Sequence to fold (164 residues):
Amino acid sequence: MREPASEVGRDALTVPMVAQRAGVTPSTVYRRWGDLQELLSDVAVERLRPETAPEDTGDLRADLTTWAEQFLDEMASPSGRAYIRDALLGDPDGGNAGRCSAYAAEQIDVILGRAAARGERTPGTETVVDHVVAPLMYRILFRPDGLDAARARSLVALVLADTE
Fold:
């Protein structure tokens, strides 16, 4: 999928091109995905899946800050924004959006679980999603000006203020 897109450009990509590269007929692709946008959505969700567990520094604030900065860096990159766009555009029922949200929640669960095992007080996963992930995603999608690591650090500090 990435090869044809890089060769002709994403906007010129067609189902027949993808099918030819995969060694199947276009009708096979259409039966499975319906259209190119749904295929791109599924591909984007797979590309947005984290490949590794969050870093373990031994401290909740450091772990969550490191993760939030990396999340921001990856999602705000040109390819990250393209994957977000594709994941949402080809997903009329919201299933892929839910998968992307679950990826973030799973990473946060790991961080909070480690901290709790060390005896640190932690906020809930949904609190972190609402107060760190959601504002970052809003800014990535709608207000990218002034979006930097300092913003991620300040959101983490605010969500952890009640646990300290």
